[in-house]
């Protein structure tokens, strides 16, 4: 007898009586849409699977939710001569009589579907260390080797930090063509975007290594708790960065605190839609929250709590509440109100500080707008820890007797309240004093405050000119100095632009420069072929100063290296003419790297706004609605929502009905709604 069944949304409901046995025969057919990519780079074949964005169901039967964890055994059957790799550890390989080969991989610990993957292609293993390999083109160069050679050392540092050995026994790192994300943490088989800029490679690799524990070994059981994967991996990455470059780590933390949406919950109490699970804020806000906990409880306490979190046995599923309990056990403190404010709260506290000196007394005032438990913070005066005071919602005032006014004042230098939205009021001369005397985090804070302030330009110039200063501080000072009109800005930036001793700083200057006298230098640098990163930065800087000139040079370098190519496309969007549309549209293609394709779409929209033919753009976009690459189609849908007409509307409706991926169907429906709002008569 056949058991009745039905489909309820995305679930199959089988009407089985409790206590009865049934055999389930499931026939599953898929096109691999959005998950399996076939690429041929320089004549070499690469096939890889990416299961994130809830795409695992597109190539094997599963329920794409983090609460569904499973062990698995993968067998890959391929033509002989091609390498093949799955997640976990290899347990067998055999040649088949028909000219094919079979490899088998196993995972003995449960993982969620979004980290299941494979890589097949003209690749071979090269050992990096004990049970660690990189995958490189057969007989060819290994472009990531300089970064991947450090992986064994990074693994050792992570094992020391997290108190546990690498969970998967074996590890392979595979740079692959066309990966739509920077990297993916698949257990034992990390995949990396092979076009990732050099300056991003190291931190992406460390982040994905940290995921082998934080996310893969123990991870969230619901999308709303995704910060337990991305935020904790960002925290571990930050701790490893701090070991080798404290300045870079301090700048990373400052950037995480000051960029991102104004108000949102790190882990919403009511959850998030599955299609929204990759939210940028879970990375930076998770890092900031972990830093706040370190400042509040002590670094050793937080380390113990993370190790307790990773000691979870069984299914490896955790929740924000469970992680809070680990912290409470380690610290002996109740953290419910803290989590309600900084993790679950939708609105961040607004904190404003000011200080003054009057009649032999120094006054500091802290105004806290919003909710939250009171905390103790330090007050730093002229580099000295003056006092630790308790602050909370409302107004807090502190004072001390002094015959002299302070040169500068910092409230909360340790970052107990780093995630708040801060306004710090003090005069320019005080910010300059803080830049000269404060620890590194305070100096970065001062640089940010001195941007746009002409009076602060000499102090910023001194930082940029001093090669002994931390590289992160000098880079940040370049961007701040480039916003001012002071004579010191032009002189300093031009001197650095012509200085061969610091190639990295020259790239930063070339991208940020605001001096028209630099045009000849930027023209010559933008066409250099020995340093693509410098050429791309110069082209970007030139586009800010002289858009048509940047576009003229861009037309000649569109076939250059990927970094130059992307900069050239952006330059055409800034200063190009309508007839440049066809030059840009050839990069709107699923075989083109995702970031380059995004740049081309943005440039195309700008050119259309300046008179290029909309119908030409729309033809390319409508054709793209049927492409096999799901990430490319998502970009196309978004663009059509901005420029599409009735024909585009119909193509989007067909795409929404035909796709098997719920998140992609929602992107198409969103574009439909955008067109209907823009052209009411299409409703």
Question: What does the model show?
Answer:
The protein is α+β, with helices and mostly antiparallel strands and 683 residues long. The chain is built from 25 helices and 23 strands. Strands 10-11-12-14-13 form a five-stranded mixed beta sheet, with helices on one face. Helix 5 crosses helix 6. The longest helix is centred in the middle third of the chain and has 18 residues. The chain is globular, with a radius of gyration of 27 Å. The two termini are 48 Å apart.
Give me some keywords for this one:
five-stranded mixed β-sheet, about 675 residues, four-stranded antiparallel β-sheet, single chain, 25 helices, alpha+beta, about 45% helix, about 20% strand
Question: What is the fold's blueprint, element by element?
Answer:
Blueprint: E1 5-8, E2 11-14, E3 36-41, E4 44-49, E5 69-79, E6 83-86, E7 89-95, E8 100-112, E9 118-121, E10 123-129, E11 132-137, H1 145-148, H2 151-162, E12 171-176, E13 183-184, E14 189-193, H3 198-211, E15 219-220, H4 227-244, H5 246-258, H6 281-297, H7 299-310, E16 317-318, H8 320-331, H9 336-342, E17 350-358, E18 361-369, E19 375-381, E20 384-391, E21 394-401, E22 409-411, E23 421-424, H10 428-437, H11 440-450, H12 457-465, H13 471-481, H14 487-497, H15 503-512, H16 519-526, H17 532-545, H18 547-555, H19 562-575, H20 581-585, H21 594-609, H22 614-624, H23 630-643, H24 646-658, H25 662-678
Parallel strand pairs: 11-12, 12-14, 15-16, 17-23
Antiparallel strand pairs: 1-2, 3-4, 4-9, 5-8, 6-9, 7-8, 10-11, 13-14, 17-18, 18-21, 19-20, 19-22
Helix pairs in contact: 2-3, 3-4, 4-5, 4-6, 5-6, 5-11, 5-13, 6-7, 7-8, 10-11, 11-13, 12-13, 12-14, 13-15, 14-15, 15-17, 16-17, 17-18, 17-19, 18-19, 19-21, 21-23, 22-23, 23-25, 24-25
């Amino acid at each position: 007898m056949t058991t009745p069944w039905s489909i309820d949304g995305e679930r199959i409901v089988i009407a089985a009586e409790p206590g009865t046995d049934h055999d389930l025969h499931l026939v599953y057919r898929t096109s691999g849409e959005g998950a399996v990519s076939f690429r041929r780079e320089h004549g070499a074949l690469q096939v890889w699977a990416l299961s994130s964005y809830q795409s695992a169901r597109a190539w094997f039967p599963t329920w794409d939710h983090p609460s569904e964890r499973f062990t698995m055994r993968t067998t890959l059957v391929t033509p002989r001569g091609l390498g093949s790799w799955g997640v976990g550890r290899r347990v067998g390989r055999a040649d088949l009589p028909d000219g094919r080969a079979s490899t088998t991989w196993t995972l003995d610990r449960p993982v969620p579907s979004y980290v299941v993957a494979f890589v097949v292609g003209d690749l071979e293993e090269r050992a990096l260390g004990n049970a660690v390999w990189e995958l490189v083109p057969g007989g060819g160069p290994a472009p990531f080797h300089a970064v991947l050679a450090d992986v064994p050392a990074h693994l050792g540092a992570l094992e020391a930090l997290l108190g546990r050995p690498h969970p998967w026994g074996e590890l392979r790192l595979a740079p692959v063509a066309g990966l739509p994300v920077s990297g993916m943490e698949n257990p034992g088989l990390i995949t990396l975007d092979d076009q990732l800029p050099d300056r991003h490679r190291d931190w992406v690799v460390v982040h994905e290594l940290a995921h082998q524990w934080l996310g893969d070994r123990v991870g969230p059981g619901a999308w709303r708790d995704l910060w337990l994967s991305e935020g904790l991996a960002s925290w571990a990455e930050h701790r490893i960065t701090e070991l080798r470059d404290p300045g870079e780590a301090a700048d990373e933390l400052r950037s995480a605190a000051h960029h991102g949406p104004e108000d949102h919950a790190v882990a919403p109490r009511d959850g998030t839609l599955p299609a929204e699970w990759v939210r940028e804020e879970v990375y930076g806000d998770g890092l900031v929250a972990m830093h706040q906990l370190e400042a509040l409880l002590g670094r050793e306490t937080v380390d113990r709590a993370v190790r307790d979190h990773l000691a979870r046995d069984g299914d490896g599923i955790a929740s924000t509440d469970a992680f809070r309990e680990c912290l409470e056990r380690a610290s002996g403190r109740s953290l419910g109100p803290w989590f309600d404010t900084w993790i679950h709260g939708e609105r961040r506290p607004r904190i404003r500080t000011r200080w003054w000196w009057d009649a032999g007394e120094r006054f500091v005032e802290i105004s806290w707008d919003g909710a939250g438990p009171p905390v103790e913070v330090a007050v730093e005066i002229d580099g000295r820890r003056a006092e630790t005071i308790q602050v909370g919602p409302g107004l807090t005032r502190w004072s001390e007797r002094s015959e002299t006014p302070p040169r500068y004042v910092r409230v909360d230098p340790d970052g107990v309240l780093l995630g708040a939205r801060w306004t710090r009021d003090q005069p320019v001369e005080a910010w300059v004093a803080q830049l000269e005397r404060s620890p590194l985090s305070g100096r970065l804070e001062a640089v940010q405050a001195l941007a746009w302030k002409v009076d602060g330009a000499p102090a910023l110039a001194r930082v940029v000119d001093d090669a002994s200063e931390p590289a992160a501080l000098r880079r940040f000072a370049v961007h701040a100095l480039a916003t001012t009109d002071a004579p010191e800005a032009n002189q300093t930036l031009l001197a650095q632009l012509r200085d061969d001793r610091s190639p990295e700083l020259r790239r930063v200057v070339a991208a940020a420069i605001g001096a028209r006298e630099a045009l000849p230098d930027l023209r010559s640098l933008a066409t250099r072929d020995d340093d693509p990163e410098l050429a791309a930065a110069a082209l970007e800087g030139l586009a800010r100063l002289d858009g048509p000139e940047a576009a003229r040079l861009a037309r000649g370098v569109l076939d250059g290296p990927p970094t130059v190519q992307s900069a050239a496309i952006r330059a055409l969007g800034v200063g190009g003419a309508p007839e440049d549309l066809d030059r840009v549209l050839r990069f709107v293609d699923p075989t083109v790297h995702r970031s380059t394709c995004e740049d081309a779409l943005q440039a195309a929209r700008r050119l259309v706004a300046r008179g290029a033919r909309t119908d030409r753009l729309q033809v390319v976009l409508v054709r793209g609605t049927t492409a096999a690459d799901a990430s490319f189609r998502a970009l196309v849908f978004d663009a059509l929502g901005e420029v599409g007409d009735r024909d585009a509307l119909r193509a989007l409706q067909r795409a929404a009905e035909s796709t098997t991926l719920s998140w992609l169907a929602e992107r198409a429906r969103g574009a439909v709604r955008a067109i209907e709002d823009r052209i009411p008569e299409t409703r």
